[in-house]
Specification:
275 residues; 10 helices; globular
Length: 275
């Protein structure tokens, strides 16, 4: 497990990430003294579908505004800040990559959401929280790197209260053809561990959840990729997901588009309840 986690940290760690994002914000005319969550939407939600995918996930979580929400694999805090700003919920995020957690804290302070959000450097397989802590949980494009899914879902179940709702939005295996690498989460199969929606659903049930909805979002993803391609000028903008994914971002994005379009993988959203 430690070897895989080190590979994952090395994959996601980007030098000067915080500075590059702040420079990009300034270059696009954003006011750092009055920064909003919307100002960050092109860079801090670098999963398939971006902000619209996050908002759709939130709509499925039945949040009233009083919940304490766990964000497993929070990255630089995009989903956490969106949840906090749109629902008023408190959010605690954990991520394996220290650079991401540092940037998440900085951007949260600049958007004045530090009273609603907290970020911790930690493994999703051993989280620094007591049993039955959270009223809801979300994980966005995270488990593709995690081989021990039993440990992941058992640990999430441990820190959630009974009847708490979990939203999983991940890339999952579809079809028999192998994934084309590199992709945003891995440069090779060594650190890529996709499961089918059926496998994930069975694991969740074994680990203390009742699965209530499974949605293949391939059509949504293809439309999203088509919009990105149509809007592309061929020159990277000062602010975008390439800042987080590094120099190989164009190839990674091209490959995930190909993998989804060819039926090798699919973004899937699963809603489950802690029993």
């Amino acid at each position: 497990m430690e070897v895989l986690e080190n590979i994952v940290k090395g994959h996601y760690g980007v030098a000067d990430l915080g500075k590059n994002i702040l420079d990009g914000l300034a270059a696009t005319g954003k006011d750092l003294d009055n920064l909003t969550v919307e100002d960050l939407s092109t860079v801090d939600e670098f999963h398939i579908g971006g902000r619209s995918a996050t908002e759709y996930a939130i709509s499925k979580m039945s949040l009233s505004g009083n919940e304490h929400v766990l964000d497993v694999g929070c990255g630089i805090g995009g989903a956490a800040r969106t949840i906090a700003s749109q629902t008023g919920c408190r959010v605690s995020g954990i991520d394996l990559t220290p650079e991401y957690v540092d940037v998440a804290a900085t951007l949260t302070r600049l958007t004045r959401l530090e009273a609603k959000t907290r970020f911790h450097t930690a493994s999703a397989l051993s989280m620094p929280f007591d049993d039955n802590t959270f009223d809801a949980a979300i994980t966005v494009h995270v488990s593709m790197n995690i081989e021990d899914r039993d440990a992941l879902y058992t640990e999430i179940a441990r820190v959630m209260k009974p009847q708490a709702r979990l939203c999983i939005y991940d890339v999952m295996k579809k079809g028999d053809e192998p994934i084309v690498f590199p992709v945003p989460w891995a440069v090779s199969a060594e650190s890529s561990h996709l499961r089918t929606p059926e496998e994930v659903s069975a694991l969740l049930q074994d680990c203390g959840f009742e699965v209530i909805e499974v949605e293949d979002r391939t059509e949504f993803a293809n439309a999203y990729f088509d919009r990105r391609m149509a809007a592309s000028t061929g020159t990277p903008s000062p602010l975008g997901p390439h800042l987080v994914m590094g120099p190989s971002a164009p190839e990674k994005i091209k490959n995930i588009k190909h993998n989804v379009g060819s039926g090798r993988a699919a973004p899937v959203q699963i809603i489950a309840v802690r029993t």
